[in-house]
Amino acid sequence: MNRAVFAVVATIVVAGLAVLPLLGAPYWTTFVFSILIAYVLAQSWDWVAGEMGYINLGHYVFYGIGAYAFAIALSSALMPSVPLAMVIAVLVVAIVAAVLALPLFRLRGDYFAFGTLALLPLAEVLTNNNTWLTGGADGIVLPVAHVLQAAFWLALILAVASFAVTLVINRAPFGFALRSIRNDEEVAEVIGLPLLPTKIKALVLSSLFAGMAGAIQAWQMSYIDAVTVFGLNVALVPIAMALLGGSGLRWGPFIGVVLLAGIQQWLLVNITMLQATVYGAIILLIGRYMPGGILRAGILRGLPWLAPLTREHGAFVADTAIDQVVSSSAVMSAEMPLDRIAPRGTETPLLVCRDVAKAFGGNRALAGVSFNVAQGEIVGLVGQNGSGKTTLFNCISKVHSLSGGEIRFSGRDLSGLRRDQMAGLGVGRTYQIPRPFGDLTVAENVALSLMFGPQREIPARALTEARSFLAYAELDHRRDVRADALSLQEKKLLEFARALATRPKLLLVDEIASGLTPVEVRRFVDRIRAVRDDYGITVIWVEHIASALNAAADRIIVLEQGQLIADGPPAVVFRDQRVLASYLGAAEVVE
Amino acid sequence: MMLEVSHLVVDHGKLRALWDVNLNVSEGQRVGLVGANGAGKSTTLGAIAGLYSAAGGSIVYSGEQLVHHRAPDALARGIVLVPEGRRLFGEMTVRENLRMGAYSGRTRGTLVEGLDKVFALFPVLRDKQAQPARELSGGQQQMVAIGRALMSQPKLLLLDEPFIGVAPILVDEIMAALATIAADGVTMVLVDQNIGRALRFVERATVIQNGRTVLEGDSATLLTDENFATTFMGLD
Amino acid sequence: MSIDVVLQVLVGGILVGGLYALVAFGLSLIYGVVRILNFAHGTILAVTGVAASLIFARWQLSPVLIFILLVPSVFLLGAVFYRGLLHPLERRSPLEATIGTVLVTVGALLILSDVTAVLAGPTQRNIMLRSPVIEVGNIVISVTQLAILAAIVVMTLVIHAILKATWFGLAVRAVTQEPIAAELCGARSLQVKTLTFGVGSATVAIAAVLYVLTFPVDPYMGFGLTVKAFTIIVVGGIGNLPGALIVGVLLGVAEGLVGLFWGPEWSPAISVILLLLILVAFPAGIRWRRG
């Protein structure tokens, strides 16, 4: 949809809704009011679920807390002011959400869904029991009347704000952060995203909108009790709406809310019994037949005139971002915007590993490995599968914590550091089995490193610069493709570009050339040398292809059974009988 | 021919892992499957054992074409895979792990005899049979994995990297055990990253590169083939 | 407050805690093998309990007969539920599969509670058996309660024996620990999963019949129980039977004591608060090592 047309249509619709309370149709005003509130809930829920991938079934708790905080503040004798009560409600919800985020984000997947759902009965018990504060089972009657018009307008503003926030999030680094978490938390952290603060921010933001919706609802109804704001049946409705439409889609929550609210209204009029059953059946059937939502159903996907509604967020973002990219820089060079790393003044090595040990249960993956890497070196790391190479990489990038020994980088002890801080210090890595953010574009994958990196670049600039890194990896022509559609070889190139975009001082390269043709392997040898020669980046390269390491590396380190068995120039190490026997197993072939 | 894999194609999700793999194994033979990391060795074994479905080509076993067979179907025909990384049931005892090998039914009745055979092959396991499998060393765990596979009396044994994480002394012991098993008439396909070791054990070998069979021949011939050493092993 | 009252509460806590443990064990069995958290798990107890009390009120059948009637039915329903509504979701992407299973089981929870409430009324009900009481000091224990306690112990031993000694039990543990290796050993995953879903549900049905003999049930109590069972398996460990029993009994006793000293209306909050506290204290989850 053309953006100007959309703006005009949206303005007309919002203006039309704004005059609705003046038309003297209280039934319709109330109905639309309930839709607006439901939309705020569904959309704010989807920031955490659709964007970040965490299914928060306890979203309604924050709605209820907002409603109660507002009601208690307003009915208190101290200062019965609606704006003040709103502010209090918002503050209370923010604090509760921030505190609850700590235990809740220990959970993943359906455990998280479960933990959040368990908040509802807890909230109900607490509300019913703390009679002194909440009035217990009697609920609270607010000293207000005839506020439908004002509440309606507030709800309309909040709903428009929810949509606007959705648009803003999608273009902001924050939205990229959420989507990277949804795709692969560990990788997001390794390229420099502080995970917990991001998750807390997302939960607090989403809870704030739910809390405000609760406050407005309480004001409009002028009465609340625990069952209406914490009951299991009502609590899941906005979530069912978002999922029905299509979680993670720009228009998903909106479409879902309108559809389900319509059905609900019809049920209220036509069915007196078993309403919860009908609701349950709708939820169950959505789950069974279209967990991706109506807008993702194959039938709708095929309708061209519905295309604007059924597109994923990513499609919109790529559109706008690429516009800016093209206008800002037409020609791409294969020069990466990296500063050449100056030689270190001191004599201390860049990386010091001392007696590094790592055990998984009884299995000793690393049994006391010691070596140094000087700045500007290219070190080849070899050893059989299972000899501990990848484990060593995981220890250096803090994916694993050590069982013993010490690792120092730039003179700094790494114990106690988080993964995202490693990226900040200048340790970048690739994964042996590529782990791209699958549902983001190739350009976005690389841009994320720039956004989370030391320079915290804005998305437009990051997407522009990403092209230089992609050009360097000879992948620029695939920049607008979803990363999960790449071939294995292309994914390896993407791993390389993404790691370089973290602006590393030390680059850990894990079997990037395996499975490639000799010509492609040669290209990687050249690239790795160029990365060191042109930009001063220190490299540790794990690879099974001896000829590649022979050509690229200054030094070879050999691991066997978690122990270092050789460390020296390639010419020496690759002649060592023990190395040949252990690693290549083909001494007689070489001679 | 006991096993004839022709033009096998396997996809992992959207990615094609095997493009055109051919592998022929005759009864009683020991065949090596070699290639670089990521070439498709494990996927080939997995497809034969019923872990992955073929997207093209055919797998014919003892004259019967296997179509969309699952692992239990392969097992019922005597095809057993010893998977990479052993995949033992870590919290279960060694004896329970071995018992689980006889789960499929054909050999449940001869459980005790089966256990005795495994213990005869790997005497150290007899003393460790009440220990949880995760407490064993890498080599002993590999013995359990092979023993578990033997419990169903396989005709075709597929071994995927059985020497990873195994101490050198135990490698020899396991090698010897494999030779004994082969002498009993069990056909074998071996994947081992240590090519020299693999070629010395097997009679024939098939080389896979980027999901395609590129070379096939007697192991003795391959061991002396210059071309093989340079292109395949990456030694200049 | 006398020590006798506390002891009396302890007895009740152990009894209800043992039943929680049975429910938790069904949940953990299913989660271990099928990797699905069934939100409707506790609701099975509510529904089965109501059904048992209705049958008793109508036909005065003996609890043993009700047990024989209901447990296999629930087994069958659980298996069919998994096969028809949950298993097909396995083919979808991981996120869609998670969303799908959550929605299907939450939907089932709403339907089961609502239909039961409409058919049987939303009131609390239980089975009142006349049984003699035994007095130990000032503590009063009815023969029914003793029988329930014995039944819990027997059921725990039976489940333990099934897991340890039968081929099915072996397969359940194997699939829980290494699903691919289990498949390679010939365990057909669909078969094992369907059976496990049935057995896990039947475990709850067993707990339900025992529960309704001393405690009241209502159609809406289910989710609270699911929360308790979840807390128990988070603390006790997936597939850890003794762990579940210990934690279940501790939870039951804690609820009893909180009810005694603070007021019974606070008891339901214990498990959720405990769960949140444990998540803060043990970020990586509690690791239990056997032996």
Please outline the helices and strands.
The complex is a heterotrimer of chains A (about 600), B (about 240) and C (about 290).
Chain A: H1 3-19, H2 26-51, H3 59-75, H4 82-104, H5 109-117, H6 119-129, H7 131-134, E1 140-141, H8 148-171, H9 173-183, H10 185-190, H11 195-221, E2 223-224, H12 226-230, H13 232-235, H14 237-245, H15 252-270, H16 275-289, H17 298-301, H18 307-310, H19 313-328, E3 351-360, E4 363-373, E5 378-382, H20 389-396, E6 404-409, E7 412-413, H21 419-425, E8 427-429, H22 442-452, H23 459-472, H24 488-500, E9 506-510, H25 518-535, E10 538-542, H26 546-552, E11 555-560, E12 563-568, H27 570-573, H28 577-584, H29 587-590
Parallel strand pairs in A: 5-10, 5-11, 8-9, 9-10
Antiparallel strand pairs in A: 1-2, 3-4, 3-6, 6-7, 11-12
Chain B: E1 3-12, E2 15-25, E3 30-34, H1 41-49, E4 56-61, E5 64-65, H2 71-76, E6 79-82, H3 94-101, H4 111-121, H5 124-128, H6 138-150, E7 156-160, H7 168-183, E8 187-191, H8 195-201, E9 204-209, E10 212-218, H9 219-224, H10 226-233
Helix pairs in contact in B: 3-6
Chain C: H1 3-34, H2 41-59, H3 63-86, H4 94-120, E1 133-136, E2 139-142, H5 143-165, H6 167-177, H7 179-184, H8 189-212, H9 222-236, H10 241-262, H11 269-281
Antiparallel strand pairs in C: 1-2
Q: Tell me the fraction of residues in β-strands of chain B, as a range.
A: 25-35%
Number of helical runs of chain B? Answer: 10
Helix and strand string of chain B, N-terminal first? EEEHEEHEHHHHEHEHEEHH
Whole-number count of domains of chain B: 1
Tally of individual domains of chain A: 4
First-last Cα distance of chain B: 37 Å
Mean of all residue-level pLDDT scores of chain B: 89
Terminal CA distance of chain A:
69 Å
Mind describing the biggest β-sheet of chain A? 6 strands, mixed
Q: Write down the Rg of chain A.
A: 29 Å
Give the radius of gyration of chain B: 17 Å
Assembly form of the protein: heterotrimer
What is the beta-strand fraction of chain A? Answer: 5-15%
Structural class of chain B: alpha/beta
The level-1 CATH class of chain B: Alpha Beta
**Main sheet characteristics of chain B:** 6 strands, mixed
Using the alpha-carbon principal axes, give the shape of chain A: elongated
